[in-house]
Write a structure and sequence with these properties.
Elements (H helix, E strand, L loop, with lengths): L3 E10 L7 E10 L2 E7 L10 E4 L3 E5 L1 E6 L15 H13 L4 H16 L3 E6 L7 H8 L1 H5 L2 E7 L21 H15 L6 E6 L4 H5 L5 H14 L3 E5 L7 H9 L3 H8 L6 E5 L5 H10 L2 E4 L1 H6 L7 H6 L3 E4 L12 H16 L7 H7 L2 H6 L17 E5 L11 H8 L5 E6 L2 E5 L2 E2 L4 H19 L14
Parallel strand pairs: 1-4, 1-5, 6-7, 7-8, 8-9, 9-10, 10-11, 11-12, 12-13
Antiparallel strand pairs: 1-2, 2-3, 5-14, 14-15, 15-16, 16-17
Helix pairs in contact: 1-17, 2-3, 2-17, 5-7, 9-10, 13-14, 14-16
Amino acid sequence: MSRTKLLTNAYVITVDGERRVLPRGYVRVAGERIDAVGPMDELEVEQADEVIDCGGMVVTPGLINLHNHHWGSLFKNTGDGLLLEAWLDEVTIPLMMQLTPETLRAAAYLGAIEALRTGTTCQLNHVVNVNDEESFAAICEPYPEVGVRQVVTKELRQPPDPPFSTRYPAFEHARDLDEELALGEELVRRWDGYGGVLHGGFAVETGASWMLHNATSEELIHRSVDLAKRLDVRITNHCGAGTPWLSIQEFRDVTGGGDVDYLERLGALSDRWVLIHSIWLTPREVSAVARAGASCVTCPVSNAYSCDGIAPVKDMIANGVNVALGSDGAYVNCSVDMIEQMKFAALIQNVTHMDPTLMSAERVLEMATINGARAVGLEHEIGSLEVGKRADIAVFDLERAHTTVGNRPVSALVFSAHGTDVDTVLVNGEVVLRGGELRFGSEREVLADARRLARETIERAGIEHRVDVHWRPTS
């Protein structure tokens, strides 16, 4: 018999097809899945193997972070004051070249803990470092242990010949194209479904900054799309991100168009793509994304941090594009708190368009739940509280000084709460956080390892000067 759990007396925000909200509701879980959702006055017997009283709390689908680089959790606050291009060349790539399996594993533990402690039950881990079997295992293994769902993408690389650009060096790679694709397929098949919480995918870079660094060939792009279709997985891809007078303009000078124009010209634009950032898309490109059935992911805090720009989310919505929400790696955001991302996403879009109704609390919550699930093809499994779906659930305590007079719980969650207000989290029906206490018992050890390994990596990368500054002079 599967164990049953009953969450009672909650303000339940289902994000289901009818967008039901139950001011005093319950959610019942049997095994890994949701067994029933309804108002308390229709609950016949308040009995289960475990009853969790959620009085004063908001119950939502577990939040979904559709863009994260997990190892960035070790390197917060290393990129202050840099535009994207300088940050990539002076900080990110030097750090990336120094990553070891031990470092990747510690970062995976740390990122998983931070996710659960802010109500996030699923992340898309956009892998940018080059991996073999050992290092990819180091990325994957910690997530089931901590208890967080993860879409882990295997990077696929092949420098073009001749180079796409001669201004920047090509990313080194150890395998030819056939070997690269074979390894990618092997690792996706091996890790997809691992621990009941891992899902496979690919990361293929066709955006301006990465193409200018010669990361990807046209043949790799075509064959990656074919492989993703065959395995029924998604491809995550940095798109339309960068400084408009630097990499964005350089890419347009080379190709005559933008990042989506380039994919469309190659005949490679399809519903497999999860297009991250999507800031500098023209109306023509937004229409092309909509026709292809691809998804876009906006990362507003990250984009503000590196001064990239503001994505045309209004146009995306108007064209019927599925838009999800991401934090980006914590090295270019300094937080993976999805409550923070929702609030900022709403405010930056509304003030840009001078329309306080454009991005409501409801809309950004959809972006951080069901839209994220839809982008990675998991909308039938997660993203809403519905009978038959996996029990990925977040419970936020609103009986705190900054939220207790919230007046409207949906708005209070987005505009007044913090991710750290999470009280209880279930993933796959398992209680992985309860009363602020993690099921995972080695948090202190993880934090100590993360501090040590972060410092060692920063020193090997030669960027101590970025962090060993106690006060930067202001002009």
